[in-house]
Structures are given as structure tokens and as C-alpha cells.
Amino acid sequence: MTETPPSTNSPSPQRFPVVVVGAGPAGLTVGCVLRAAGVDCLVLETETREFVEGRPRAGVIEEPVVRGLERRGLAGNLLERARRDTACEFRFDGERHRFGFHELTGRHHWVYPQQLLVTDLVREYTDVRGGAVRFGVRDVRLHGLDGDRPSVSYVCPESGRREVVGCDFVAGCDGARGVTRAAVAGRARVARHDYGIGWLALLAEAPPSADRVLFGCHPDGFAGQMPRSPEVTRYYLQCPPGDEPENWPHERVWAELRRRLGAAGAEPLTEGRLIEKRVLDMHDYVTEPMAFGRLYLAGDAAHLVAPIAAKGLNLALHDAFALGDALAARLLKGDGTGLAGYSESCLRRVWDYQEFSQWLSELYHGGAGGDPFRAGTALARLRRLFSSPAAAAAFAERYLGTAARY
């Protein structure tokens, strides 16, 4: 944390008020917010621009997050191109059950693949707002974070020299395996939870088989369909943790999807080439606090929520809005209130979303564990969604991210 900065042969010292480590959605959003306020910052990213713009990840964005992007001038393409979901569908006991969350709340989900959002944010930060960024850097290190003169150093990919950048603050937005998370190891309290299951994450070159998200709650395991575009569909299949994608050839994948998503009156699945297969071990963690000296963590650098409730990208962007606004207020107005309250405010939302993810996991997976008690309670939860207006409204608010205010 307090490593002495190395000497450098840089022809001139570099300094930015803020160094952002990581060019994912959180880091780029922080950078865009700062540049809009007139604050200079530097974004450092170990991958190439082409890699970060092409990496397929999340795609479901809550309406409050879209409005936050819109207020900051970052939602132009999203508003024009994104799909709007107004309902989802649960399939259990061989039947289809449509859940119209827009009818209950007046809100909807937006479906916009993360790689498109990142491409928009990179272009906005670099080409429109003139932000500085270094892609492909190596061996990023943090220095002096407990003092008032922190710095970040990295090896330049072109020259091979170690460059040192002085700053006032560091925004750690480089994910679960990044250097900023490692920098607080041993100092932070980390709460972890393992669901004991895996999800086989699939991308298929095939149109969606229904015009909405599908949740299949089946005794053989959960299955999900998440439309991404008219030509590409995301599917999930529950599997053992640590399973290998090679154990799931084309024929087995589609046979399991047909069985677990099968229901009376349902259209047959449209098969296609599988262009991605990854096994995700379902686990969560929360790092407390999210601030250490001059380092502020955001997104997966601070917390990971399993994709069970599609909350990860949304949490990262909520963090980025709060952190970008707080840094701008501190640097431009001397107002440190936002930074002082950043960790506590963000963590309230993080824990709320973690609890919902855990609750939803029992809904999805409780019937597949071989435990008749868990199966019975999971089925009771599912039936309640479609028999109790109060239960349906409460679920819709939490599913859409509109239940709480922070």
C-alpha cells in the first residue's frame, strides 16, 4: 500500500488528479463523469481496446441505471438501440407463467450487451470528452495510498519503461483479480458466500425462442434464456461447480435446454451454433469498506454478485455514478461529503442486492438439489408470485432494482 515509487526515465513527470485503474463499465463511467465536470484523469487498462470492446458479458440494465447514464449524457446509443423487456416467464411443473413486471410497476428492463455499452463509453471518454487512456499497460503498481501524494506506476507496452503518474486519488475499477483489490488484501474485511452450484454460460447464434427472458425451474436443474439480439441468445444451464465446458457438446446442451425449458404450449427452441461455453461457479463476495486512504474501489474490485439476479453490471454503474460525482465535488468544490459517505452508501445497496440474489437462488435451484423440503419451499415461492398481488409487486420492485432508495 505504501511502496516507494520507483525511479523513472520518463522525459517529464506525469500527474492527473485521478488515476482510474480498469477500463470496464465502472472505470470508463467514472472517467466520463470526471471529464464532463472538467476534471483530468488517466484510465489505465492492461488489455487492448479491441479486447475490452469485444468482451461479451452482462446485458440486462435496470431502468434507474439507464436514467443515471442518460443524465450524464452516456445513454444515446443505448436508448436508440436497446431492447426493452416488460415481462419475463417462469416455467415450472410443465406450465408457462408469464410475469408482467411493467404492468405492476410501470418500469422495464433494458437489454444492451455490455460490449456495446463499453464501446460507447470508450468512444465518449476518449473521442468526445478527450480523456487520457493507456491500453495494454503491464505490471500496474500502487504507491503511497495512505498519504496525500499517491501515485500509480506501470510498464509502457511500447517503450518497456516504467512510468510513474502522480495523483490525488485512485479509482480501483479493475475487477476481481485486479491490482487494486490485491492492494487491500489483509486490511479489508471480505465476506464470501458459495452457492455450491455452477452455471454453464452459453451464447448461441440463434434467435430467441420466446420474446422474453425465460426462467426454467426444473428438478434436473435451472435453465435460463436471455435474449441479446435478434441473432444471438444467451442461455444458462445449472451444472456441478467446477464442471468443464467440454463435457457439454452441442447435442447435450440443446437436449437439456429443451427438457428444462419445456412447457405446455411453448414454442420449440431454435437451435444454433454455440459460440461461447463457460462454466461459472456461483459465488459472491463483499469487501468492506470500499475506501482505503486515497483508494476507492468500485464494481467487481469491491464486490461480486453471482449473475443469478443480473445485478453485477448495475451495481458497478451505481458505484461509478457515486464515485465520479463525489470525486468531482471534492476536487472542484472542496466538498468531501460524497467521498466520506461513499463506502457506506454503496454497501447498503450491495447487501440489498446480495440478499435478493440469495433469495432468488432458492427460487431457481431449490427444486433441483434432491432435498424435498427445499423443493417444496421453492415451489411455494413460485406459486406465491402468481397468486398474491402483494408478493408479485414486491418481487417486481426488487427484480427491477426500484425497491429501495440510497
UniProtKB/TrEMBL annotation:
Protein name: 4-hydroxybenzoate 3-monooxygenase
Organism: Streptomyces pseudogriseolus (Streptomyces gancidicus)
Keywords of the record: FAD, Flavoprotein
Acyltransferase recorded as keyword: no
Domain FAD-binding as annotated: residue spans: 16-356
Pfam families for this protein: FAD_binding_3
InterPro entries listed in its UniProt record: FAD-bd (IPR002938), FAD/NAD-bd_sf (IPR036188), RIFMO-like (IPR050641)
